[in-house]
Amino acid sequence: MDKEIFDSSVRKLESAYEMLTRDGVSDNIVKSSRTLWLSAARELEKYKVFKGRLQTEHYKMVLQSIEEYWSQKFYDVVGGNSIIHSSYYNGLEPGSVLIVYAFASWKEEQECPIDKVDYVQLLASAEIFKGRYGLKDFIKNSKQHSHLAQS
User: Fold this and answer.
1) Closest by alpha carbon to 78, among 24, 26, 21, 29?
2) Which of 40, 88, 98, 119 is packed most tightly, with the most Cβ within 10 A?
3) Which residues contact 55 (CB under 8 A, 6 or more apart)?
4) Origin, by domain of life (predicted)?
């Protein structure tokens, strides 16, 4: 049963994105269309229902990763953090806009996998700086990682 719910969840994410971007994207933002934003928001809400019904941890974990991918794709087409004039939103249904932007935003409880990387081990496992002198200079000038390029 979880396989079918998982597959349906993924299709909801895909269809929400397809609906939102159906009329194209210009200047990193989708067309201002009430129908497109409403349709996408409805699909995202259906996705949440399917996601909530998953029982298997494996499917939940994989779906979380897929959701992060689609969240970034949505972010890329709804203007990211660009300043968008209020006239863009004229005619849109406010709830649908909030739903889409909430999906496209980084979640407070979401952990960033980069924060858990052991960079000393990473450097020991590969010759990252070999032939990449500009990279080494870049890392040396980094406040957080400068110690990694000292050798």
Assistant:
1) 29
2) 40
3) 1, 2
4) Bacteria
Q: Which two tokens stand for residue 81?
A: 């953090």
Distance CA 63, CA 57 (A): 10
Q: Where is 25: in which H helix or E strand? A: strand 25-26
**20-71 per-position pLDDT tens digit:** 999 888 778 899 999 999 999 999 999 999 999 999 999 999 999 999 999 9
- What is residue 26's three-state secondary structure? strand
Tokens of 21: 């971007």
Q: Which of 34, 51, 42, 33 is nearest to 15 (CA)?
A: 42
Q: What is the pTM of this model?
A: 0.81
Query: How many alpha carbons lie under 13 Å from residue 89 in its C-beta half-sphere?
Result: 14
- Kindly state the tokens that stand for 18: 């397809």
